[in-house]
Structure formats: structure tokens, C-alpha cells
Amino acid sequence: MERKTIYVTRQGAKLQRVDGQLGVYIDRTLLDRFAPNEIDQVLLFGNVQVSTQAISLLFKHGVHVSFFSTSARYRGQLVAPESGNVFVRLAQHARYMDAAFRLELSRALIRSKIGAGRLLVRRFARNHPAAAEVMDECAQFLAASVDALDGVRDWMRCEASRELRQRDIFKHST
To answer: Would 89 be classed as within a structural domain?
Structure first.
């Protein structure tokens, strides 16, 4: 059985326990019911209330509840105490123990951050063209540096360098 992700975006909605199921109410009218064993996670956007009985029911079935603003900015999460699969956790731990994997993951993260930084500066450069040239030079330097990373300390230095250069561009361009 495939489990569902429940999205609640209607402002003023209330989640309550109803006969052992999760009920979604608007203005005291029951809109929908969900069996808790069919729910993977619940995502709440904006002004949505959840009763303690509903939270207890969701936790009993290992369901996470995440809270977001109306504009989808992450606010926080309630996590069931025994959530997830123990075999997944063991596999994650085994991957973590692999130094080569951690290093390659670090490289991938830094490459993504460099790409995101370039995009941010390109948008910024629409009004400040000099910033784009400087950032492209920095991004090329950092991208070349990523492949030379040998460990966590190198990764931290490269990340710090990326952050400082990006801040410097914005500071001098405004």
C-alpha cells in the first residue's frame, strides 16, 4: 500500500481525530478523512490548527507533521519518536562511514552552492553589471578548486572562501 502525503493549504483549517482517523475541517464542516496508516506525512501551510489528539494519532503511526508559511517558507516539524525504517538508518550510517562518499557528497554540495551563488549574482547583475564579471571569475576559480578537495578541512576552507567572495561582491556593488 502506497502512503500519501497530505497537503493542507486552506487557511483556518483544523485537523482533528475522528473515529480513529484524521479529519480535516473547515468552519466545523468535515471535508475529508484519512486513515493514519495510509499517511506518510502531513504538510501544513499557513494558519492551520492541529489538535493534540490528531498529533497523538499521527505519532502513533510514525507520521511527520511539517509547518510552512503561506508562502511555503519552512517553519518547523513535529517528528514521531519511532519514525522511519531502521534498515534505512543503518544504510545511512554505513554510507556516512565511507570517507570517499562523504568527500564526493561535499564536492556535490559545494558545486550546487556555487551554481546557486552564480544565479543569485546574475540576477543582482541586472542592475550591477560589474558584479557579474567578478563573480564569474570567482566561480570558475572555486569550481576548479572543488575537484582538488582532499578532506573536510579543505571543504570547509573552500566553502568559507566561496561565502566570503560572494559577500564581498554584494558589499562592493551596493
So the answer is: no
Please report, to the nearest 10 degrees, the dihedral formed by the alpha carbons of residues 41, 67, 34, 89 taken in order. 20
Distance separating alpha carbons of residues 147 and 104, to the nearest angstrom: 9
Q: Which of 40-54, 71-85, 89-103 has the lowest mean pLDDT?
A: 71-85
> Mean pLDDT of all residues in the chain?
83
115 in the same domain as 79: no
Strands 14-18 and 21-26, sheet pairing: antiparallel
Whichever domain contains 79, its CATH number is 3.100.10.20
Radius of gyration of the chain (CA): 23
The arithmetic mean of pLDDT across residues 62-73, rounded, is 92
Spatial distance between the Cα atoms of 162 and 151, rounded to a whole number of angstroms: 17
